[in-house]
Specification:
Two copies of one chain form a homodimer. Chain A has 438 residues and is of the alpha/beta class. The first copy, chain A, has three domains: 155 residues, Rossmann fold (3-Layer(aba) Sandwich); 162 residues, Dihydrodipicolinate Reductase, domain 2 (2-Layer Sandwich); 85 residues, ACT domain (Alpha-Beta Plaits, 2-Layer Sandwich). Chain A is built from 14 helices and 17 strands. In chain A, strands 7, 8, 9, 10, 11, 12, 13, 14, 15, 16 and 17 form an eleven-stranded mixed β-sheet that branches. The N and C termini of chain A lie far apart (51 Å). At the A-B interface, helix 1, helix 2, helix 6, strand 12 and helix 12 of A face helix 1, helix 2, helix 6, strand 12 and helix 12 of B. Strand 12 of chain A pairs antiparallel with strand 12 of chain B.
């Protein structure tokens, strides 16, 4: 029976998970591949720490030098699970030059240097696979590249960061402040300390950029993806949202506008019976819409040793199947043989048209609502509902409202003017509304 | 640029949808394949009817003889969309013998004669693809064969029949009888007239048998899959279910028990905040659980010209990619190189352990509840809650109850005894409860 040799760079959480899947399910995998997948080498700067895998690797296969496996002529597939940008990029490119197929879970690297790597794979005639880079264990890359390949993709929208979703869920269920929910998430191991890239939208934006590359075959300038995190969300906003019939979620959204794309990550209010509104805890869910398939949804655990290991191994199995058949470079990295590669333009955020939730903090004086609604009207924004709450301890009251659709530039202008009013005591909270049309 | 020639057998709903995807998205598909996919021949007994596709096929490519395309040496991929068993089986086997890759959406054929066809594909060294056979546009076959390939699959569970789900949704939302909901579904084109195989569970069981083949690599004797339809469900049951906090859905369930499988299709009560309980109208949703990935869910339109066309075309694209690369027989039909093929034994329904909903119709006499609960207790069944309703017009009252977990054989025995009581006026309705542990 043919043997497929794998080298793993990075033996942290995901590396250990990958090793565990490969050893635990060895028999099933051999049958699915038609060959034996063997971990021939594992590289990590720290090869002393016990990773708690049930079937410990032979110390002889451990190395602190990634080049040991990149240059090993016996290795067919290099699996990069070290994370980070520069070193990971260097190792992946070197591995490809040496004719290795590459599997990576490195979303930051693909979002920022993806096109260089995609092109290098094609030049080298090797396959690059990255199922684990988006949505953890959810086979979303496969759905985009293969399952919906007959469709013009019209929208990708999803809860792509499990840490943020866990924090928002805790805030909603236990009426916690953002800070208290972060603390709970860190204590329970659901978040790094501090979870900056998770809660500021960067991690979700990385994943969105990768999905855009496949869905639209377009290079995206990652810096142009709008990002706004969940730091400013308060339990009050979550409560008011619920009164209006919405939940608050951190959503990554890409829509095909014809000659431009919408590409944005920010908190949204989403109708409470929308399927994305009911994705709780550390779960991820991605909604894909195609011109023929219509709306589809994919749901599962978006992070963690075991689900991410599952995704990495599904890629290893696909590549191993290629190796067994002595086929190389089967499906191009993005599923397009000639990826347009041209940078597609992202619609400036100012041009977005959507509905809004505003929470204005104002002194409870006569005429304040009339002043505020006057400013909104002058900027072409009409209100669909308002809740005016009783006085709070600081002497100011929250005025919360939902608007009809308006242009982002006008909404921002109106909020600037409102925040300059003497009666307004705090910065107005703005949350966009999504999913009313789904 | 390389040309991949496709022949389509059957130009009905799905055939026309497939043709429409291929022509409408020609440019995208060419780029995804790296070659041009050309429909070279379409066979149908009726080539006169206008199928309403936007880009009408040249009459010269239409034929009433499927052998015209099976024997055409220029055709690379044969797409069987005629349905039915004998003729379809014959055409598929002939096409394979002639070296054609085959795409089919024929779930009845694969459920009943799948293993013969899977083996014929391997013998002929061609690829057999059948994404459209389960879940319409949802790429569930890809998820099982590739996306979760590193996992031991522990459970597949889903709403696999859109017609039944549409009927149950209408019954719940509009308080319609089963018959009235069927009539509405037929009128709106959501159901055949009569929709026998949809509402009796056969269609869902076909799809379940196909998923079992991939998930467990096991041949299933389709006749051993337990099937119970939704015909006996009444609006009353839906209302009582709701009072207990459940929705009623027709679910197809397969679970790995180690040396046996559970494989059953029947109505279930499912907790109302379970994600499967919130799949409405003609949507399908499939829940897959693997040992590493954990729970995952896939949701979309399970039938119809456009979604099913999308799935068929995703298979055509995968095969066309193979043809372009001059690779054949890439991934075996079930994703296992050596499918065990041995028939796995399905657990007899009597051995099932689950919770139950019973609706007993009884005369409102003193002691009736005590008699009934006595019979249940003697059969080892304990009640978790009871609702006893007021007298209805026939002088009998419904006694509805939920039980703790019990064995199916004991539940059936108890119900037999209860139905023999003089005070019991009608056959007791039994619905199994699922999803409390998810």
């Amino acid at each position: 029976m043919k043997q497929i040799n794998v080298g793993i760079i990075g033996f942290g959480t995901v590396g250990a998970g990958t090793y565990e899947v490969l050893t635990t399910n060895r028999e099933i995998i051999t049958n699915r591949v038609g060959g034996e997948v063997v971990v021939r080498r594992i590289a990590d700067l720290d090869i002393e720490t016990d990773r708690g895998v049930p079937d410990k690797p032979d110390p002889a296969i451990l190395t602190t030098n990634a080049m040991d496996l990149i240059l090993d002529p016996e290795i067919d597939v290099v699996v990069e699970l070290m994370g980070g940008l520069e070193k990971a990029r260097e190792f992946i490119l070197k591995a490809m030059e040496n004719g290795k197929h590459v599997v990576t879970a490195n979303k930051a690297l693909l979002a920022e240097f993806g096109w260089e790597i995609y092109r290098a794979a094609e030049r080298a005639g090797v396959t690059l696979a990255f199922e684990a880079s988006v949505g953890g264990g959810i086979p979303i890359i496969g759905a985009l590249k293969t399952g919906l390949s007959g469709n013009r993709i019209q929208a990708c929208m999803g809860i792509l960061n499990g840490t943020s979703n866990y924090i928002l869920t805790k805030m909603a269920q236990e009426n916690l402040s953002f800070e208290a929910a972060v603390e709970a998430a860190v204590t329970l191991g659901f978040a790094e300390d501090p979870p900056t890239l998770d809660v500021d939208g960067t991690d979700a934006a990385h994943k969105l950029a990768i999905m855009i590359s496949i869905a639209f075959g377009s290079a995206v300038d990652f810096g142009h993806v709008f990002r706004e995190g969940i730091v400013a969300i308060t339990p009050d906003d979550i409560r008011y949202a619920r009164e209006f019939g919405y939940h608050i979620k951190l959503l990554a959204i890409a829509k095909d506008l014809g000659d431009q794309l919408e590409a944005r990550v920010h908190p949204v209010m989403i109708p409470k019976d929308h399927i994305l509104a009911n994705v709780h805890e550390a779960f991820n869910a991605i909604f894909l819409e195609g011109d023929f398939v219509g709306p589809t949804l994919y749901y599962g655990l978006g992070a963690g040793r075991r689900p991410t290991g599952s995704a990495v191994v599904s890629d290893i199995i696909s590549l191993a199947r290629d190796v067994v058949m002595e086929k190389r470079g089967m499906v191009p990295p993005l599923g397009h043989v000639q990826p347009p590669g041209k940078a597609v333009s992202i619609q400036p955020m100012d041009a977005l048209v959507t509905s809004y939730y505003f929470r204005v903090s104002a002194l409870d004086t006569t005429g304040v609502l009339s002043t505020i609604s006057g400013i909104l009207a002058q900027n072409g924004i009409s209100i669909s509902s308002v809740i005016q709450k009783g006085r709070d301890r600081k002497g100011s009251v929250p005025i919360v409202m939902l608007t009809h659709e308006a242009r982002e530039s006008q909404a921002q202008q109106a909020i600037r003017l409102i925040d300059e009013l003497d009666v307004v005591t705090d910065k107005t909270v703005v949350i966009r509304v999504e999913g009313n049309d789904l």
